[in-house]
Amino acid sequence: MPFAAVNGIDIYFELHGAGPPLLNISGSGNDLRRAPASILPVNKVFETLSYDQRGLGQTSQPDSDYTMADYADDAAALIHSVEWASCHVLGTSFGGMVALNLAVRHPDLVDRLVLCCTSPGGVAPSYPLHELASLDPDDVFATRMRITDRRWDPDADEPIPGLGAYYEQMATAATATPDPEQVAGLRRQLAARAGHDVVADLASIAKPTLVCAGRYDDIAPMENSELIADRIPDATLQVFEGGHIFMIQDRTAFPAIIDYLQAES
Q: How far is Cα 261 from Cα 112, in angstroms, rounded to an integer?
């Protein structure tokens, strides 16, 4: 299995596809064993580098507090480890937060930037997912579904429009017994997420940027994407029909992302 020894940890990563280099940074709690990177549509036209972030999946789980700077520096070190001079960056949800910090801290490594269902923090934060742990267990799933897509209707034939069988996978995962080590890593990730704030730095990001929002997303509300697109000088906002998982719900999302990344600067 491929690991990169960087920043004092071993990062598990996978490379798929062929073409221009693309770093794919995934969301909170993501584990490549559960969400295979091999099936991503971007692999058809890019050499895509996906990885488990610190504390999660098969990557090391250092017993310390994590910061957004740590996650950005991990991404930068991983890019260097595969000997890419620079690359496109696709960040989704928490991965979009990491991508923003990467673009601020290591701008030379980023060619084009795509930010999906994410937030800049500060005055425009995402939903405080760390607070779900304080809810009654019976309320956690309902709350998570409501913020994932505000149209959620548990009594409907399709509780969240456009998710299909993926909704059942989410429901099954919600009742599974979590791995204690993964819980610790997620808790540290969510603590770092709570401190995310690049609002003051957005104007310094000089890379072409596509900001993608789900119309019914209450984890990363659309006004947060609007703020990002307004503050980054060369940014475009595109709104898709879905919630926080619009990339599954709206089949036009990945083609739009690919078209943007393939465009001439």
A: 6
Q: Are 120 and 204 in contact (CB under 8 A)?
A: no
Band (pLDDT 50/70/90 cuts) for residue 48 is very high
Q: Which residues contact 50 (CB under 8 A, 6 or more apart)?
A: 13, 14, 16, 24, 26, 32, 37, 40
- List, for residues 85-128, the tens digit of each pLDDT value: 999 999 999 999 999 999 999 999 999 999 999 999 999 999 99
pTM for this structure? 0.97
- 3-class SS of residue 50: strand
pLDDT at position 132: 92
CA–CA distance, 150 with 198 (Å, rounded to integer): 26
Domain extent listing, the chain: 3-262
Instruction: Please name the amino acid found at residue 18.
Output: A
Sheet with 21-25: list strands edge to edge.
3-6, 9-16, 47-51, 21-25, 87-92, 110-116, 209-214, 235-240
CATH superfamily of 3-262: Alpha/Beta hydrolase fold, catalytic domain (3.40.50.1820)
